[in-house]
Amino acid sequence: xxxxxxxxxxxxxxRPGVEQVFLRLQDSGADVCLLLCALWLERRQVPCEAQxxxxxxxxxxxWQRQVVQPLRELRQGWKAAAxxxxxxxRLREQVKALELEAERELLGRLEQLAQKWQATDEAVAWLxxxxxxxxxxxxxxxxxxxx
Length: 147
Hints:
The chain has helices spanning about 5-15, 20-25, 30-45, 50-75, 80-85, 85-115, 125-130, 135-145. The chain is mainly α.
């Protein structure tokens, strides 16, 4: 398993079926970066505590709202026009790259907070606090164990 959250996220996202699940969850309002962090913490066996989850949310929610979401909305809003305009398509790809960089920054901030948290020998369950979809949780956990 990659030690850092960014490389863990890349490896997990590349597993079969994960991208589709994350896109579906994202479309329904889930914070994919927070879910990836939760998976990473589960794999590292860091206990899930309400205070820790609140700290992660305090970092993730404003960043998602102020940085990632506006970039995503701009990129998605240009989708149809970019099919007809090569220059806009090029700009849309740049916005997409900036959106990904914003997500990378968020993952870095989440990791910086969480990396000092101590692991335990017991199984931990972060995803239950963030995701109701049992099938999605199972698929994501399987993918995480294969990274």
